[in-house]
Design goal:
The protein is built from 18 helices and nine strands. The protein is α/β, with parallel strands linked by helices and about 600 residues long. Strand 6, helix 11 and strand 7 form a beta-alpha-beta unit.
């Protein structure tokens, strides 16, 4: 069958349109003008205020779906009767779900939109069995495109609401313009009656060309979107079977469950292996954790002193585990690792729970961080060829600085068999509440929105009194949840940033004070305040762009006022990561200080940097 070679001699069916369009087409012309103008205003509102208009968008989509189903029953389209009835019923059910059930939970809107897109695609694809060739091609392309976009909506739910709001809003504006134009032509008597159309040979040819062009555009958009989605997904870390929970009942904390090879880079003079072990969370519940054991290639005789390394922020998803990354055992990730190995020390680096192994990641949740780190040492003791001393020195950076302080705080009661000789906290996020207050007051950016999600979601998953809904704008909970599923090193994190940007252009994603209520109370509980029975060395950069230096100074002042002895090193020209990177002047200080702790050299009163 080919497109029309000659003008038709009789009326032909009007091209299929949506439920609202077909319903208005059977109403008086003045109704078309009113509805068209209202749709233009509504579309502009949805486009410019995507998050604010979610309730309106949900109602509009629900009404449109029901109208499409009703019109398919009243005025069937040129498709097989049974398929038309089935699709009509599904449209009505889908619209009803949005209106009467989903109104209680807008966060499920992306999934339902995805289902309606797939349903719409299947309905459009039925058109390949009816009509002219160009109509069949366009129907097939429209069906494929809608199914593809429906699947993408399931894969990227945090941007689905924004994209659908903009796309649906623009579509609504166009529909309003078309309805207004058609109605005005009917008022002037220049439009054919509903159900009829006429056209010249040239017009029909151009119509066919337009259909082919539109089909090509739809397929191009669908194919390009799918390629981008695949590229973003392929860049995400893959959590392999090593991290799966073993069969059987939970083991005692610190039990080595599995050890295996590490596929990343190995430091000079060192060997690296992965471990999976049991631990406990902040409430004492059994949990799993993973990590790295980095040891000298030529192990000196006797039990080896241990460095407990606590890594900084890498995200909060399972795939963000350092043991899955390529460079986590190099001197760019662990300060002075090459010197530590040369000294004959073993470095045990936890991923914490929820990274690598399944579970909840304890982002700035001190007790859980500390238990993960301590139990990693216990498990490493049972690794092949390991003979570890009970003497440990704890190192950590940023989030890991917070964890390191907590390790030394809880170790005497949680693991009395370990002897903590000292703690090195580099640029520590020691007081989560003070940091949250400072960031909320001085910054407002898409990156900050992502970072807040990394705190809020783990806290909500850990503490039953912290509710995401208390702090996130309606419809934004799925966006916040999805932000925690991506690591800062993977390409997909750009989706989180774009979603945050899209939301912030409309209204704040977090519409409550994050430092108040249950979240504020829990943040305060997780401040690292000691006491520490062993020496503590603090270091930070004067150009720190993440944690304001005033917070470090306040931390030192408060701890000193409580009688805690501290040693402090400040490097005016360095930023947040500067003190731990190769070439930092702090590394030599840290090594000498750590050697002195393992050698049992006491810290004299003169070395205390607290005012007398």
């Amino acid at each position: 069958m080919t497109d029309e070679p000659t003008p038709p001699r009789a009326p032909v069916p009007v091209p299929r349109r949506g439920g609202v369009s077909r319903l208005v087409g059977h109403a008086p012309a003045w109704v078309g003008v009113v509805v068209g103008l209202a749709l233009i205003v509504l579309g502009v509102f949805i486009v410019t205020r995507p998050l604010t208009s979610l309730w309106v968008l949900a109602i509009y989509i629900g009404v449109s779906a029901i109208a499409s189903g009703v019109m398919d029953l009243i005025a069937p389209r040129d498709v097989p009767r049974r398929a038309n009835i089935v699709l009509a019923i599904l449209w009505i059910i889908g619209g009803g779900v949005i209106l009467f059930w989903l109104g209680r939970n807008l966060d499920l809107l992306p999934e339902l939109i995805a289902g309606l897109l797939v349903l719409g695609g299947l309905g459009a694809a039925i058109g390949v069995f009816r009509g002219r060739v160009s109509e069949r091609v366009l129907a097939g392309a429209s069906g494929v495109a809608q199914v593809v976009f429906g699947l993408l909506a399931l894969l990227w739910p945090d941007v689905t609401l924004l994209v659908v709001a903009i796309a649906f809003g623009l579509r609504t504006v166009v529909l309003g313009i078309v309805l207004t134009w058609r109605a005005s032509r009917r008022i002037r008597g220049r439009s054919p009656r509903p159900g009829e159309t006429t056209g010249s040979r040239r017009g029909l040819i151009w119509a066919a060309v337009g259909r082919y062009a539109l089909a090509a555009v739809l397929l191009g958009l669908a194919g390009g979107s799918w390629w981008v989605s695949t590229w973003l997904a392929d860049g995400a870390p893959v959590v392999d079977a090593f991290y799966d929970a073993p069969d059987g009942p939970p083991s005692a904390p610190g039990t080595l469950l599995r050890e295996g090879s590490y596929n990343g880079r190995t430091p000079v003079g060192g060997e690296v292996r992965r471990i999976l072990y049991s631990t406990t969370d902040t409430f004492g519940n059994r949990a799993l954790a993973s990590g790295l054991v980095i040891s000298p290639a030529e192990m000196p005789p006797g039990p080896r002193p241990v460095i407990i390394w606590n890594h900084g922020t890498t995200g909060v998803a399972r795939g963000c585990a350092p043991s899955l990354a390529d460079a986590s055992a190099t001197r760019w990730a662990i300060p002075a690792i090459d010197r530590a190995l040369a000294a004959g020390w073993v470095v045990v680096a936890t991923d914490y729970t929820g990274q690598g192994a399944p579970g909840t990641f304890p982002y700035l949740i001190g007790e859980s961080e500390a238990r993960s780190a301590i139990d990693a040492v216990r498990a490493a003791e049972d690794a092949d060829g390991m003979w570890l001393s009970s003497e440990v020195v704890v190192w950590g950076h940023s989030q890991g600085g917070h964890a390191a302080l907590w390790v030394s705080q809880v170790a005497p009661t949680y693991a009395p068999e370990l002897s903590v000789q000292g703690t090195v906290a580099i640029s520590p996020a020691a007081d989560p509440l003070a940091l949250a207050e400072e960031l909320a007051r001085t910054q407002d950016s898409a990156i900050l929105s992502v970072l807040i999600s990394w705190v809020l979601v783990p806290y909500a998953d850990t503490y039953p009194d912290v509710m995401i809904a208390d702090y996130v704008a309606p419809g934004g909970r799925s966006i916040v949840r999805e932000m925690t599923q991506r690591c800062p090193t993977e390409p997909g994190v750009v989706v989180s940033v774009l979603a945050a940007l899209g939301v912030s252009a409309d209204r704040p994603l977090y519409d409550a004070d994050l430092t108040a209520g249950a979240l504020g109370e829990r943040l305060a509980q997780n401040a690292a305040t000691g006491p520490w029975t062993s020496p503590v060395l603090l270091a930070w950069g004067g150009q720190d762009e993440v944690i304001p230096t005033a917070l470090y100074e306040r931390f030192v002042e408060e701890r000193c006022a409580e009688g805690q002895a501290l040693q402090v090193r400040v490097f005016d020209e360095l930023d947040h990561t500067g003190p731990m990177l190769p070439g930092s002047p702090f590394l030599s200080t840290m090594m000498r200080w750590t050697e002195a702790r393992f050698d049992g050299v006491p810290v004299t009163a003169a070395a205390n940097d607290c005012p007398a």
